[in-house]
Design a protein that fits this description.
By secondary structure, the protein is an alpha+beta fold. The chain is built from four helices and ten strands; from the N terminus they run βαβββββαββββαα. It has helices at 16-31, 99-116, 188-192, 197-207; strands at residues 7-13, 38-43, 47-50, 68-70, 78-80, 84-90, 121-122, 136-138, 144-153, 156-164. The strands form two sheets. Strands 1-2-6-10-9-8-7 form a seven-stranded mixed sheet, with helices on both faces. Strand 8 (136-138) and strand 9 (144-153) form a beta hairpin. Helix 2 (99-116) packs across helix 4. It is globular.
């Protein structure tokens, strides 16, 4: 894997809409070479986000009271909430690397971070004709612990990943996550019963060479 040092930005809880506005600003700055490649770590209040291909039947019942927001990233429905670490990646790719290649790199860096935290994990290749298996999965229990959805515009990436640390997993059961009705979403707390958001942030930042 190529060396790719990133500048690190960290925040706590940021409303999704406000985060999208700031991310758009970061992307514009990177496209104009006014900022270096950047990793932004944060969390969101409870919200479902959906990609353009998300079927209506995958959405949650509105009575649950959690907002649903359409977003410009790839992928289908995902959930964000407190206790989840979100990472937005604003990175200018070279001519020899497309967004699919970079998503694979992101998966491998996150696998490395989870391994350092004591949880063996893996990325998966998608069989032909299947729903995309983008993300990171636990090696021993086969559960999905990280969702990834990204896009690229004028060579610069946006959006990123969501790692479940110690938040409530119940909202995942109220909708169809990642286009897969049978997916079992999990968290670090569920898998290894030892979690510290600060420790997870540090491990993720280190795996992305971010400081």
């Amino acid at each position: 894997m190529r060396a790719r040092p990133l500048t690190l930005i960290q925040d706590e809880l940021v409303d999704y809409d406000k985060a999208m506005e700031r991310m758009a600003d970061l992307v514009g700055e990177r496209q104009r070479d006014e900022r270096p490649d950047t990793l932004w770590l944060l969390s969101h209040p409870s919200v479902y986000t959906v990609g353009r291909r998300t079927p209506l039947e995958h959405l949650p019942d509105p009575s649950r009271g959690i907002p649903v927001i359409e977003t410009g990233r790839g992928g289908q429905l995902t959930y964000h909430g407190p206790g989840q670490l979100v990472g937005y990646l604003v990175v200018k790719l070279g001519e020899d690397q497309g967004i699919v290649d970079y998503v694979r790199e992101v998966e491998l860096r996150l696998v490395d971070a989870l391994g350092g935290l004591g949880l063996p994990a893996e990325r998966r290749d998608t069989p032909p004709g299947s729903e995309l298996l983008t993300g990171v999965w636990t090696a021993e229990t086969g559960r999905k612990i990280i969702s990834i959805g990204m896009r690229q515009s004028r060579s610069v990436t946006s959006h990123g990943f969501a790692l479940n640390v110690d938040g409530d997993l119940e909202p995942w059961h109220w909708a169809v996550a990642c286009g897969m009705p049978d997916v079992d979403m999990t968290s670090l707390r569920r898998e290894i019963s030892r979690t510290s958001m600060d420790e997870v942030r540090a491990a993720v930042a280190a795996s992305f060479e971010a400081s």
